[in-house]
Amino acid sequence: MYDIEHEAEDHSRTIVHIDIDCFYAQVEMIKDPRLYQIPLGIKQKNILVTSNYVARKYGVKKCMLIADALKVCPNLEIVKGEDLYDYRKMSYQVTSYLQKYSVLVERLGLDENYVDVTQLVDERLKHQNPNIDVRGNLFNNIAETCVCGCVERLKMGSVIAQEIREGVLHELKLTTCAGISYNKLLAKLACSLHKPNEQTVVFPNHAVALMLSLSNVSEIPGVGSATDEILEKINIRTIEDLQKCHFETLIQALNGDRAKWLVDLSYGRDNSVVKTSGRPQSIGLEDSCKVLNVETEVREKFHQLLMRLIILVSEDGRIPTTIKVTIRKFDSVSKVSHRETKQCNIGPNLFSTDKITRMISLNEQSEKKLLSIVMNLFKKLVNTSRSYHITLLGLSFTKFKERFDGKNSIASYLMNDLAVQSVTSIERKNSISQPQTSLQTVCSTDGSENEIEPLPKKSRLGSLVSRCARLGDSDYSSPSKLRVADLRLNSRDSDHGDTGYLDTVASSREIECPPNADKDVFKELPSDVQQELWEDWKRNRSHEDPHDKPFKKAKTNTLLNYFLKN
């Protein structure tokens, strides 16, 4: 039995649903401003797919036949909309703009987008006064009683939604509607409550009331005609019918999962996440300003943009490798503003990743270095020794690389050969079976730790563990550079039993060095490893042909060495 009353709800998210008003019509009106003032319809074949709001006042509706539309509005101007090129182009420009606020942007067709602004809301609430008013409309203007903090989050979400809509209008000349709530279902329904060019917020305590305001089950997003027909056969037509229906009856008509999904929706519950519709090629921010002509002000503005940009990049999960600076300069001679950009590569080591949250961040030193790079790019665009007039600053990351997790990569596979190549330079015709190592932590010279994921199997020689306290004197940027003396090895095949990690590499009895080994390296190895190599050499020698050619030196230009360079 599905427990309807005690189903847990999550109010922690802030979801904004953006819907572009009469999208096709707006695109055509932007192309031809004359159409703003007259009734306009967009046709595909013999159907009117949309119209502007001037035409809707005459009774023109979506999906009307052309003949019927002309009857109610004889002066309707009709534009062909079969070619979707301009609509698609504008649609992706809108999505790209939304990605300035969050990388979690999900496209629904050409004119709708979900935006998860949860992280941006949380960040702003840390630094801004939470006692703000709702921007736009509020569904059921009744005092909210939820104590989880969702009220403040949704209020801040309404502020961000208004900023988004104003930005889309300013940059792309498109009016939009928005719905703001804690899940996708309520945000989408709220978006349609006040049109055009308005927004509505729905608090958690009003979710059921919003669902009951729907006239039919078919108005629930995701409920198609097939499901609607099935529900009608069991006398379910309204949301109230769906809520009162016995769950077993729903299971008999539908499968169990779909029945549970429908019941959840009838109470306004929706735990589906905003699915990113492809990762953006660039993540950036721009900020218009009246006038900037002092370097300290420019630096401060860039610092603000950088901090906001890091929030967006942390959600994306990739590591930026290129940064681009954009400026808009006002030419006092021609009285015209023009944009210029400059970019350069940046080192991935500037960014650090939290081990638990996997979020990308900048430490204070990296932040200063990156800001210095930004200012150098700015100075290449602007001669700061002369007067200048800046009206816009922009900052963006334009190239990315995936984080190296180490488990399923080629480098990880090739790391199986690491112990032999990094610990000993013994030259063998018949090589030792390659041990698999578990390299835990390599300490870099700047004190940071570069984690390498442990491999799934342990080696015969055991795990290689760096002595961090002794690595500060030299450069150990890759595991292949580790000195044998700085490693502790544990062998499961030791003649002395399970002694754990050996504290010294000295041995009480001297073992002869194989002729094909480097004596200095051999002396640094633990005695049990020396013994194993000596015995192995003797076994191989017993099977050798005395007329064999001398052993060849192992090639260093290997695929593994290529990967270990990075």
Automatic annotation (TrEMBL):
Gene Ontology terms for molecular function: damaged DNA binding; DNA-directed DNA polymerase activity
PROSITE patterns listed in its UniProt record: UMUC
Name the UniProt record assigns to this protein: UmuC domain-containing protein
Span of domain UmuC: 15-224
GO terms, biological process: DNA repair; translesion synthesis
InterPro entries xrefs: DNA/RNA_pol_sf, DNA_pol_Y-fam_lit_finger_sf, DNA_pol_Y-fam_little_finger, Rev_trsase/Diguanyl_cyclase, UmuC
Source organism: Pyrocoelia pectoralis
One Pfam family this sequence matches: IMS
